[in-house]
Amino acid sequence: GAVVSQHPSRVICKSGTSVKIECRSLDFQATTMFWYRQFPKQSLMLMATSNEGSKATYEQGVEKDKFLINHASLTLSTLTVTSAHPEDSSFYICSARGGSGTPGYTQYFGPGTRLTVL
Amino acid sequence: RKEVEQDPGPFNVPEGATVAFNCTYSNSASQSFFWYRQDCRKEPKLLMSVYSSGNEDGRFTAQLNRASQYISLLIRDSKLSDSATYLCVVNFQAGTALIFGKGTTLSVSS
To answer: What is the pLDDT of residues A55-71, one digit of tens each?
Structure first.
């Protein structure tokens, strides 16, 4: 099956720093990538939808200037949490989807990145 | 009103028990339905898709009632390894993001 990787798997940083999370589709071209966030005991909440080569579409309540998303290639999307604060501590998960008819048409999830902001 | 609602549990059952999870969704135009499994501190993994005719995969049976906007998952002969959080997931339109319920926690004990 299709594989999606995320890096780093875990990061601890000081308040005010920026953190970049990478999401890669390893064996298919991901035309669309989704970024989710999950707080403890909560459901996965969609943050934004990213299509290769275009600007991401953010969900209501998600600050686009704080959560910068870049989807520059068909296999890589990045989420940068700028000026991170303790309330941004969460589990960030990406999912990737290929085009219709490709093995990746279903959404495949990365293993997640656990961010802790001190 | 939340888009996908589930009973959070926890459901604590002995090995061998049968357990059922329920889920309702608010968008009647939703097209695809799934159950995902999430282990602690891990990403969700697809357990099974849910079809209108109902479908079964080994010990797992999923049902969909579009008229009632209701989805269910039945687990028979529970195993210790079934302990996890089960997420009800709905897709409004192919290619768009999945909408997740909060999850129902299952704990199977010996």
So the answer is: 899 999 999 999 999 98
* H-helix segments, chain A: none
CA torsion through residues A32, B55, B39, B26, sign? positive
Question: What three-state secondary structure class fits B82?
Answer: helix
Interface test with B, best of A9, A36, A44 (most B CBs within 10 A): A44
Residue A97's DSSP bridge partners are A32
Q: Is B97 on the interface with A (CB under 8 A)?
A: yes
Local confidence pLDDT in tens for the 110 residues of chain B:
568 999 888 999 999 999 999 999 998 888 899 999 999 889 999 999 998 888 999 999 999 999 999 999 999 999 999 999 999 999 888 778 899 999 999 999 99
User: Are the C-beta atoms of residues B80 and B108 closer than 8 Å to each other?
Assistant: yes
CA dist B105 and B40 (Å) reads 10
What CA–CA distances, in Å, run from A6 to A16, B26, B63, B79? 23, 32, 33, 30
Tokens representing B87 are 């997420």
Nearest to B87 by CA among B104, B63, B66, B73: B104
Element (H, E) at B72: strand B70-75
Give the residues across from A11 on adjacent strands.
A115
Q: Which of A9, A43, A107 to mutate to test the interface with B (most CBs of B within 10 A)?
A: A43
Which residues numbered 37-66 in B keep a CB inside 8 Å of some CB on A? 41-46
